[in-house]
Amino acid sequence: MFEYAPAPESHRPDIREHYGLFIDGEFVDAENGATFKSINPANEQVLFSVAEAGEADVAAAVGAARRAHRTVWGPMSGTERGKYLFRIARLLQERSREFAVAESIDNGKPIKETRDFDVPTAAQHFFYHAGWADKLEYAGLGPGPRPLGVVGQVIPWNFPLLMLAWKIAPALACGNTAVLKPAETTPLTALMFAELCAEAGLPPGVVNILPGAGATGAALVESPVDKVAFTGSTAVGRRIAKAVAGSRKRVTLELGGKAANIVYDDAPLDQAVEGIVNGIFFNQGHVCCAGSRLLVQESVAEEVLAKLKDRVSTLRVGDPLDKNTDVGAVNSAEQLERIRELTEAGGAEGAEPWQPACELPETGYWFRPTVFTGVQQSMRVAREEIFGPVLSVLTFRTPDEAIKKANNTPYGLSAGVWTDKGSQILWTAERLRAGVVWANTFNRFDAASPFGGVKESGYGREGGRQGLEAYLDV
Amino acid sequence: MGSILSGAEAASLVRSLPGVDAVGLEARAADLGSRSIKKDSKAWAIDTAVGMIDLTTLEGADTPGKVRNLCAKAVRPDLEAPPVAAVCVYPAMAGVASEALSGSPVKVASVATGFPAGQVPLEVRLADTEAAVREGADEVDMVINRGQFLSGDLERVFHEIRAVKAACGEARLKVILETGELVTYDNVRRASFLAMHAGADFIKTSTGKVGVNATLPVTLLMMQAVRDFRAATGVQVGVKPAGGIRTTKDAVKYLVSVNEVLGEDWLSPHWFRFGASSLLNDLLMQRQKLTTGHYSGPDYVTVD
Amino acid sequence: MSERLRVKKTYKLYVGGKFPRSESGRSYPVTTPDGTELANAALASRKDVRDAVAAARKAQGPWAAQNAYLRGQILYRAAEMLEGRSGQFAAELAEAAGAEARETLGTVEEAIDRLVHYAGWTDKVASVLGGANPVSGPYFNHSKPEPLGVVGVVAPQDDPLVGLVEALAPAIATGNAVVVVASGTRPLPALSFGEVLATSDLPGGVVNVLSGKVAELAPWLASHADLNGLDLCGVEDADLAAELEAEAAGTLKVVRRPGGSGGPLDLLRQWIEYKTVWHPAGMAAGVGGGY
Fold first, then answer.
1. Which of A364, B101, B210, B280 gives a 20 to 30 Å CA spacing to C289?
2. Each residue of C133-176: pLDDT tens digit?
3. B178 in a structural domain
4. Which residues constitute the domain of residue B208?
């Protein structure tokens, strides 16, 4: 037997015992003194305590951002703004291991992913947008694009640093100042990023970080910001869209999904299986664009399922800091409960669950990779976003049926298609109602590529030339 | 073991295989290559890799002395390491190797069939094979005729492999696809299935005599082929990457791939080999490092 | 000899390529600013909204699937039809505004020119707004604008023709289908414009025109789950606009608020979504690729 010995990441970043809110370039405690604790979901141990921003703190942060926009960041030339962002990108690269480990500890995701994906992609986002700062008039959006002013940004816990980069990099490049609320379960890398901003010499007030929960986010949305950018659940997105109704606030929303991953019978099957696995088990399935519905053509369904189960059996679930871990911890007890609830509903509705025989650690929040077969379009596991390592397998007979089933959801964030025929790829991609279509690949992201959804997956794009629209008055 | 397919059936079957996506295949190989193998598992991997080596010399300048030298190293690589799987030589040296290895667990492998180009008449290739077996080869490493394969004459390639297989008698047949000359992954997959349907005991990547030899993605593809072939026919076939694998780090990546793609059934010298020469010394140096705790140097392993 | 009796037009809705009366059977008098009665217009109900959205949904996919050249030609054809009936529209606009027809002819000409302008956009939007993205990996990646789907439009109240064209043309040029609530007080040019579209080879259902009360119809549009966008450019009551936007949030519709301005490209961008497609760009000949 070839057993892999533990290969733990040895680097340990300096994590403070307590973090304040980052307002106007300083770490300060909440005006009402409120704090909360962040825990490591892999072992349930408390990592640090952090101030929880209330309404007064939101007002202070938005005020600081407004001042910074009027006095420093707004008047600054694009070239100079860009240089700050380049500097941030470089600092992130320099401190990448530190950020990767911190992200893994705070979030529960495998070090392999934070090291090879989250942190480098976040750095790329800053580097990419840095280059836009002095070229906005060439973005094709209009001759004299202007910043919006102060933007309020609320991000989720699934890619804490990367989502921060997706929000802050374009906002700053376009000349806005930002107030960002990280998710309550994963504030660590945002706070380390605040330290990094100070290290970069970024003028106070340009970036403000306000840890907190839903109430903090609601206060930020209600505050006198010029734009709200949100990534998270469709339910909260709906509340935000309602809250800004009738105001002059711009809004972009990147919400949930229930992506179909379509495998035609002529697909390169081994690569398709990799794409299916990556599509649903990457980041424990805590991915809004996860390929959570596998739509496989009946004629190859059996073969694909056999290969899929073989492959899933080789996934290594466990210690996120082990370099060989493929699937880490579920981010929170609450999320674990939701995954369990929906998975039980799948069984109760008659879908057949399968899980590999892997051992799970005793403490922490864990869920075995799960594949549901015999799933019908009407079942909850086929319709609701589970946001966990749970795949629902459905079959189809003809391309038309595949498209119909794929589009039969209120969501429209992403989709996948696997076939050897170029024309079939284009035909399928054309018909899929989704903002991103991965053909013969899945879960690819790049700062130069716009990302975002249609229908109830939200509106607006992040990344690429198109992503700039969200932060400019053109 | 014999194929129940006719040449035409085999040719038509391999032509209808689904395609391979190069980017996805290479990404998976890179992913497998990123496993971190430490401590006990590394020690296990090193010894396992040593035991899977076909220690090879295929030079025009090969002499009986050189081959005996290599055989001694094969049986006892150093004071502690296990013996390798086989010594791989030209047919003219098979007798020398057979004699030098007699009584040892190390097998004699001989290349044959007009190695490395295979561009000689079939009867010469068959006579070459018979000679190798006669000289004591336990295993025959044949080359397919890439020219015929690329010209589309899959049936002829199939029949030639069958003929060589028959000439091998009891010897196990390794079929070298020379993937560097087949160029595309689709071709490699087709050639793999063609060889397996024709009766190959092993499919092997390369001769080591062309620009591109074994790579992890191409070997991964061949592993997927033998896995699928067993699932379809019940017949297990071995895999041998050859050429260009020089470091312990590389060897471990291949073993991780065997482990995760094929599983335990293939994790033995009977089903997986490395065609290599310089790899052995690197494995031995790494082995010494694990034992002593400090890095070794080339003067602490033997030149052969 | 008695004078010839003029044949007056019955102003009906334009839904699914047909000209039905309101399902409710109701109508309301349309007058000039000084109160002279011009005609009875159909008073559309929520069920007419429902039917119009259904017609638009049915028409949208095939419309978007038409090639851009053809869509451009159809919009140009609408301009041709409007040109041919410019006298009629000038008269209708004049009556609605209490002005002389010679004063409103310029407005009709402006509407015609706008149609011509957008006719030329159909086959350029994708290359102006979309393109290839230089991602850092072995992938070909491109983004292109796609229509949002079905858009509800509350047309401007005081600008019954140019304002209407300015709201409609960019939406349909990019492949959307629309349901328009015409100006409440001046609906007649919009209803007549339906006749122009009906004779322009525009497939039925791509544009649907309802006349009636904004406050009655717009909430049904805003809350309709099968609508993707909502243009509030003609909502004059700020509270109503806020309510409609909040209602539209229920299914996360894209909303254009009242008072929005911008050039043609901004209007075109309003009702599109970008679709980004990735594909590996590895040579099939990957064997020699350096590992």
1. B280
2. 999 999 999 999 999 999 999 999 999 999 999 999 999 999 99
3. yes
4. 7-291
| Segments in chain C forming alpha helices (H) | 46-65, 68-84, 86-97, 101-119, 125-129, 162-173, 188-198, 214-223, 238-248, 264-270
Question: Domains in chain B: how many in total?
Answer: 1
Q: What is the pLDDT confidence band of residue B2, given thresholds at 50, 70 and 90?
A: very low
Taking the C-alpha atoms of residue A113 and residue A320, their distance in angstroms, rounded to an integer, is 9
Q: With 60 as the cut, is the pLDDT of residue B177 above it? A: yes
Residue A270 to residue C96: CA distance in whole angstroms = 68
B99 interface with A at CB cutoff 8 Å: no
Check if A254 is active-site: yes
Residue C102 CB neighbour total at 10 angstroms: 9
β-pair partners for A48: A38
Chain C CB within 8 Å of residue A452 CB: yes
Question: Can you list the residues of chain A whose pLDDT is less than 50?
Answer: none
Q: Token digits for B109?
A: 């492998």
Share of chain B above pLDDT 70, in %: 99
Residue C268 tokens read as 């075109």
Mutate to test the interface with B, among A1, A269, A270, A441 (most CBs of B within 10 A): A270
How far is it, in rounded angstroms, from Cα A248 to Cα C83?
Answer: 38
Given the residues B107, B174, B204, B253, select the one marked as catalytic.
B204
User: Does A270 sit within 8 Å of B25, measured CB to CB?
Assistant: yes
Domain CATH for B179: 3.20.20.70
- Residue B296 located in a structural domain: no
Tens digits of per-residue pLDDT, B4-22? Answer: 799 999 999 999 998 999 9
Instruction: Report whether the peptide linkage leading into residue B116 is cis, meaning its omega lies within 30 degrees of zero.
Output: yes
Domains of chain A: 18-255+454-473 (3.40.605.10), 260-439 (3.40.309.10)
**Interface predicted TM-score (ipTM):** 0.95
d(C-alpha B221, C-alpha B218), whole Å: 5
- Going by the DSSP 8-state scheme, the letter that residue B299 receives in this structure is G
Structure tokens at C163: 């304002």
What is the Cα–Cα distance from B300 to B77, expressed in whole angstroms? 12
Residue C154's H or E segment, with its range, is strand C150-154
**Residues lower than pLDDT 50 in chain C:** 284-291
pLDDT digits (tens, 9 = 90+) for A295-339: 999 999 999 999 999 999 999 999 999 999 999 999 999 999 999
pTM of the model: 0.95
CATH homologous superfamily for the domain C38-280: Aldehyde Dehydrogenase; Chain A, domain 1 (3.40.605.10)
